[in-house]
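Checklist before submission:
- one chain only
- standard amino acids only
- sequence pasted in full

Submission:
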Amino acid sequence: MTSATSLFSPVDADLRLLTENLKQLVGARHPILYAAAEYLFGAGGKRLRPAIVLLVAKATMPGGEITQKHRRLAEITEMIHTASLVHDDVIDESELRRGVPTVNSSFGNRVAVLAGDFLFAQSSWYLANLDNLAVVKLLSEVIRDFAEGEIQQGLNRFDASLSIEAYLEKSYYKTASLMANSAKAAAILSGASETVAQQLYEYGRHLGLAFQIVDDILDFTASSDALGKPAGSDLRSGNLTAPALFAMEEKPYLETLIEREFAEEDDLEQAMALIQDSRGIERSRQLAQDHAQQAMQCLNDLPASDCRQALLELCNYALSRQH
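Returned file contents:
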C-alpha cells in the first residue's frame, strides 16, 4: 500500500521545514507549553493537512512556486488540527494517541486544555497576520466548526435515532471542514479563480468525509496496536458512527444495547458482533468510496502536475489505509 509520506514527495522538503517552524512558532516563553507542543509536533503524525495545503498551493501557482503566505497557512492548519486533537483527548479521556501517551496523560488535563487554547490562540494570531480577510474568515470558521462538532457528538451520545445525515454533518465539522477550508484558502492565496477555489473546497470536503468514514470503519476492523487506542472505543463511549448506524437497520437488538449504554455484562461484545455480522462495514466502505470519487472529480480543472497527481492518489490512500 502507498504510504502518505511517499505521496507527499513533491512537498517533502517543505514539510520538513514546516516541522521545524512549528516548534519556533509556539515559542519558548512557557516551558511547559513548549514541552507539550514539542512533544505533539514530534509525535509522528502524517502531516496530512499541511501537505494538502502545500500540494494545492503548488498545483495552483504559476510555475509551482510556494509563497511564504502558503507556508504560513500550512503551519496554521497543523496548529489548528493539533489544538483540536489535544482538546479531543481531554474530552474523551484518552490515554494514547498514535500509540504514545496523550498530552493530558503526560501533563494533566489542566495543562492539556491550556496547551490546546494556546495553539488555537497562536494560530489565530498568525492567521490575522496573513492580511487576507477571505482566508481569515475560512480558517476562523474551522475553529467554530470544531466546537460545533464536539458539542453535537456530546449531545448525541448513545442516541440510536441518529441519522446518517446527522453523522455526516458532525464528521464535516470535526474533520472535513479543516481540509475543505484550508484547501480553498491555499487556492485564494494563489490568486485562483472563484470556481477553482470552490472546487478545491469540495475536494477537501469529500476527502475529509472519506477519511473520517474510514477512521470509523477501522475502529471496528483494526487492531488496538494499529489504531494506537483500544478498538471499539467510539462505540464504547456512545459515539455512533456509520458502521453502527447502518447495522442498526438490519439488527434491531443493537438499538436496545446502545440505548441501555452497554450497562450489562457482554453488551459491548454483543454489539461489536452484531455490527460484524451485518452489512454495516461494507455499506460504510461504499459511502467512503463515493466521497473519494467525488473528491477526485473536483480536480478535473487543475492542470496536470505531480501535485495534482498526489492530490488524486490521496483519495485512494484514504480508502486503503490500515491506521
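Reviewer check: The chain is about 75% helix and 0% strand.
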